[in-house]
Backbone:
Protein backbone atom coordinates (compact mmCIF):
# COMPACT_ATOMS: atom_id res chain seq x y z
CA UNK A 1 0.00 0.00 0.00
CA UNK A 2 1.31 3.42 -0.90
CA UNK A 3 1.17 6.48 1.30
CA UNK A 4 -1.64 8.93 0.68
CA UNK A 5 -2.73 12.43 1.57
CA UNK A 6 -5.58 12.95 4.03
CA UNK A 7 -7.22 15.51 1.74
CA UNK A 8 -10.56 14.08 0.69
CA UNK A 9 -11.07 12.03 3.86
CA UNK A 10 -14.67 12.08 5.11
CA UNK A 11 -16.51 11.23 8.31
CA UNK A 12 -19.90 9.54 8.14
CA UNK A 13 -22.49 8.88 10.85
CA UNK A 14 -25.32 6.38 11.06
CA UNK A 15 -27.91 6.21 13.83
CA UNK A 16 -28.27 2.51 12.97
CA UNK A 17 -25.84 -0.06 14.29
CA UNK A 18 -24.61 -3.10 12.39
CA UNK A 19 -26.84 -6.14 12.66
CA UNK A 20 -23.73 -8.19 13.38
CA UNK A 21 -20.20 -7.62 14.56
CA UNK A 22 -18.85 -10.79 12.95
CA UNK A 23 -15.16 -11.37 12.50
CA UNK A 24 -14.95 -9.92 8.99
CA UNK A 25 -17.84 -7.45 9.32
CA UNK A 26 -18.71 -7.98 5.66
CA UNK A 27 -22.40 -7.91 6.58
CA UNK A 28 -22.11 -5.38 9.38
CA UNK A 29 -20.89 -1.82 8.94
CA UNK A 30 -20.77 -1.76 5.10
CA UNK A 31 -24.52 -2.45 4.96
CA UNK A 32 -25.35 0.76 6.86
CA UNK A 33 -26.28 4.10 5.32
CA UNK A 34 -23.99 6.92 6.49
CA UNK A 35 -24.57 10.70 6.35
CA UNK A 36 -21.40 12.68 5.71
CA UNK A 37 -20.50 15.19 8.42
CA UNK A 38 -19.60 18.30 6.45
CA UNK A 39 -16.85 20.84 7.06
CA UNK A 40 -14.69 18.62 9.32
CA UNK A 41 -11.26 20.25 9.53
CA UNK A 42 -9.26 17.40 11.11
CA UNK A 43 -9.73 13.84 12.29
CA UNK A 44 -7.12 13.33 15.00
CA UNK A 45 -5.63 10.03 16.15
CA UNK A 46 -8.11 7.46 17.44
CA UNK A 47 -8.13 3.81 18.47
CA UNK A 48 -7.57 1.42 21.32
CA UNK A 49 -5.21 2.20 24.20
CA UNK A 50 -4.20 -0.23 26.93
CA UNK A 51 -4.15 0.92 30.54
CA UNK A 52 -0.74 0.48 32.14
CA UNK A 53 -0.45 -1.79 35.17
CA UNK A 54 2.70 -1.44 37.27
CA UNK A 55 4.14 -3.51 40.10
CA UNK A 56 7.01 -2.32 42.30
CA UNK A 57 8.53 -5.33 44.10
CA UNK A 58 10.59 -4.27 47.11
CA UNK A 59 13.39 -6.71 46.29
CA UNK A 60 13.99 -5.26 42.83
CA UNK A 61 14.79 -1.83 41.47
CA UNK A 62 12.85 -2.28 38.27
CA UNK A 63 9.17 -1.54 37.76
CA UNK A 64 7.25 -4.44 36.27
CA UNK A 65 4.81 -3.33 33.57
CA UNK A 66 1.89 -5.14 32.01
CA UNK A 67 -1.02 -4.32 29.76
CA UNK A 68 -4.35 -3.94 31.53
CA UNK A 69 -7.83 -3.22 30.28
CA UNK A 70 -8.44 -1.64 26.88
CA UNK A 71 -10.04 1.76 26.33
CA UNK A 72 -11.20 2.07 22.72
CA UNK A 73 -10.41 5.78 22.77
CA UNK A 74 -11.78 9.27 22.43
CA UNK A 75 -12.11 11.38 19.31
CA UNK A 76 -12.60 15.15 19.30
CA UNK A 77 -13.83 16.64 16.04
CA UNK A 78 -14.08 20.28 15.00
CA UNK A 79 -16.05 21.49 12.01
CA UNK A 80 -17.46 24.72 10.59
CA UNK A 81 -21.04 24.87 11.89
CA UNK A 82 -23.75 24.31 9.29
CA UNK A 83 -27.30 23.88 10.65
CA UNK A 84 -28.42 22.39 7.31
CA UNK A 85 -25.73 19.66 7.24
CA UNK A 86 -27.40 16.28 7.84
CA UNK A 87 -24.29 14.73 9.39
CA UNK A 88 -23.90 17.59 11.87
CA UNK A 89 -27.61 17.38 12.72
CA UNK A 90 -27.20 13.65 13.35
CA UNK A 91 -24.27 14.31 15.72
CA UNK A 92 -26.30 16.92 17.60
CA UNK A 93 -29.23 14.51 17.89
CA UNK A 94 -26.94 11.71 19.10
CA UNK A 95 -25.57 14.03 21.77
CA UNK A 96 -29.02 14.18 23.40
CA UNK A 97 -29.36 10.38 23.37
CA UNK A 98 -27.79 7.54 25.33
CA UNK A 99 -27.70 5.41 22.16
CA UNK A 100 -24.52 4.51 20.30
CA UNK A 101 -23.97 5.57 16.70
CA UNK A 102 -21.85 4.03 13.97
CA UNK A 103 -19.09 6.18 12.46
CA UNK A 104 -17.07 5.67 9.29
CA UNK A 105 -13.83 7.40 8.34
CA UNK A 106 -13.41 7.02 4.58
CA UNK A 107 -10.04 7.75 3.03
CA UNK A 108 -9.39 8.97 -0.54
CA UNK A 109 -8.33 5.50 -1.74
CA UNK A 110 -11.60 3.92 -0.51
CA UNK A 111 -10.20 2.40 2.69
CA UNK A 112 -12.65 2.77 5.62
CA UNK A 113 -12.32 2.63 9.41
CA UNK A 114 -15.65 1.79 11.10
CA UNK A 115 -16.49 1.99 14.81
CA UNK A 116 -19.32 2.65 17.24
CA UNK A 117 -19.31 5.52 19.67
CA UNK A 118 -21.27 7.61 22.16
CA UNK A 119 -21.51 11.34 21.41
CA UNK A 120 -20.50 12.81 24.78
CA UNK A 121 -20.34 16.53 24.04
CA UNK A 122 -21.47 19.02 21.41
CA UNK A 123 -20.05 22.49 21.98
CA UNK A 124 -20.42 25.74 20.04
CA UNK A 125 -17.45 28.02 19.46
CA UNK A 126 -18.36 31.45 18.08
CA UNK A 127 -14.67 32.44 17.94
CA UNK A 128 -13.37 35.93 17.17
CA UNK A 129 -14.05 38.42 14.42
CA UNK A 130 -11.70 36.64 12.03
CA UNK A 131 -13.03 33.16 12.77
CA UNK A 132 -15.46 30.72 11.24
CA UNK A 133 -18.14 29.64 13.74
CA UNK A 134 -17.21 26.10 14.71
CA UNK A 135 -18.74 23.27 16.67
CA UNK A 136 -16.72 20.68 18.56
CA UNK A 137 -17.90 17.16 19.29
CA UNK A 138 -16.32 14.57 21.55
CA UNK A 139 -17.10 10.91 20.96
CA UNK A 140 -16.10 7.93 23.08
CA UNK A 141 -15.43 4.84 21.00
CA UNK A 142 -17.36 1.82 22.29
CA UNK A 143 -15.76 -0.70 19.93
CA UNK A 144 -12.30 -0.88 18.46
CA UNK A 145 -12.02 0.52 14.93
CA UNK A 146 -12.60 -2.07 12.21
CA UNK A 147 -10.64 -1.47 9.00
CA UNK A 148 -11.87 -2.40 5.53
CA UNK A 149 -9.16 -2.15 2.89
CA UNK A 150 -9.84 -0.37 -0.39
Residues:
Amino acid sequence: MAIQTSAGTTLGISASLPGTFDSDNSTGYPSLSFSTVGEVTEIPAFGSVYNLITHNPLGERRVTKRKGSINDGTLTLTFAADVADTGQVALKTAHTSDAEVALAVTYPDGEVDYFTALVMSYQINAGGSDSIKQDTVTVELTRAPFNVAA
Q: What stands out?
A: DSSP finds one helix and ten strands in the chain. The chain has a mean pLDDT of 93.
